[in-house]
Amino acid sequence: MNHDDEKPDRRKRRTRALLRQALMALIVEKGFDAISVQDITDRADVSRATFYLHYADKEELLTRSMREVYDELVETAEKQLDDEVFAAALLHGDHSTFYDATDFQHVVEHEEFYRVLLSEKGVAAFTVMVRDYLAKLVQEQVCLPVSAGGTAARLPPEMVAHAVAGAEIGVISWWLNQGRHHTPEDMAKMFYQLNAFGFWWAMGLDIPAPTANPDPGAPG
Amino acid sequence: MNHDDEKPDRRKRRTRALLRQALMALIVEKGFDAISVQDITDRADVSRATFYLHYADKEELLTRSMREVYDELVETAEKQLDDEVFAAALLHGDHSTFYDATDFQHVVEHEEFYRVLLSEKGVAAFTVMVRDYLAKLVQEQVCLPVSAGGTAARLPPEMVAHAVAGAEIGVISWWLNQGRHHTPEDMAKMFYQLNAFGFWWAMGLDIPAPTANPDPGAPG
DNA sequence: ACGATAATGGACAGTGTGTAGATTATCTCT
DNA sequence: AGAGATAATCTACACACTGTCCATTATCGT
Prior knowledge:
Structural class of chain A: mainly alpha
Strand content of chain A: under 5%
Oligomer: homodimer
Shape of chain A: elongated
C-alpha cells in the first residue's frame, strides 16, 4: 500500500534516473520512435526486466518524466504570480512586473530536457502541453484581469493568449539552439517588450498608427 | 528508369492516397508511434505487401506526405511575396500588404493534415519544420529589408522572427481547434495587427510608452 | 486484346515486447 | 553489524510486428 509518497529506495531512484538519462540521450540520437526498451536499458546499464519493474513501456517513462518537469513549471509559475500585485500593476501602468523571468529560469534549470523535447526529434505532446499551459496562464493572469477592468478587447483574447504562448515556445527554442547567449532576465525583458510594443518597434521603426478597428472576431 | 516524374498509374495513386488517409486517421486515434504497418494497411484495405511496394516503412509514408504539404506551402509563399512591392510598401508605410492570407489559406486547404500533425498526437518534426520555415520567411522578407533600410533593430531580429513564427503556429492550432470560426482573411488581419500594435492594444488598452531602450542582445 | 505493371496471399527469419519465477545484491532500520 | 524487506538480475517464453521474397491474380494504358 506504499503509494510512493515516501521518498523511494536509493536503488529505485538510481535506476529511474539512469533510465531517464538514457532516454534523453537516445532521443537526441534517434528520436523517440526509433528507440527500443532494449536500447534504453543497454544505455542505462540496467537489466531489461528491471525496466518493466518501473514502467509499463517506454511511453510511460517519457510521460512520467515530462510530467515531473511540467508540474514543476506549473508550481513555479503559480507561486510567482500574485493576482493582487498584478492587478495593481496593471492599473498603475507599471509593467515592470511583467519582466518575469521565472519561466525562462525554469527552462535553464532543465535545459537539456527542453532542448531535446522541443526539437524536431522531440515529442509533440510536450510542446503542446507546455504551450497550452502558457496560453491558459496568459489568459487567466492577464486577459481576464484586463477584461475585468471593463476594457473591451480588440482581438479575441483566446487568440492573443495562444499567440503569446506560441511565441514563447518559438523564442525558447531559438534561445536554446543558439547556445543561450542571453540571460533569462534578458529574455524575459525582450519578450515582454516585443509583445508590448510590437514587431515594428522591435525592428527599430516607429510604432505604426493603429487603424481604427473593432474586433473582427468572436462570431458564432 | 522511370523517375516518377510522369503521373503514376491509377492503381499507384489510389493505393498511396488510401495509405495516406489511413495514416492520418490513425494518428488521430492513437498517435504516430503506436501505429503498425498492419494497422495502416488494414484501415486502407490494402495488402501489407503492397505497402512495402511503395514505402520502406511508416516513417517514409509520413515524411513523404509531410514534404508534399510543406513544399506546397513553400511554393505558395514564395510566389506570393514580391520583394520590390514589399520594400515599397514598407517605405510608404502601407502595411496593408501584410494582411497576407496565403499562409492561412493554405492551412485551410490542408486542414485535416495540419490539425492532426500540429496536435499533441502529432509529429514534432512537422511543427518544427513549418515553424523554422516561417521564421526564415519573416527574417528574409521583413527583417532584412528593414535593416537594409538603415534601421537598427532594438531586439535581435532572429529572436523576433522566431517569436512571430511561433505565434503563427500557436494561432493556427487555436484556430483549427476552435472549429475555424474565422476566415483566413480575418486571421491574417488579426495576426498582423497583434504583431504590429502589440499585446496591450489587442486587449483594448492604450499602447504603452516604450522605455528608451537599446538592444540588450547580440552579445558574444 | 495484349503486354506491362500493380496488388495479393502466404511464408520466412529476425527483432522487440511484456510477463513470470527463481536467485542474488543492496538497501533501511534498529 | 545483522535481519528482514525490497530491488535488480537472469533466463525463458509466447506473442506481435517487421521487412523481404515469390508465385499468382487483377488492373492499367494504349
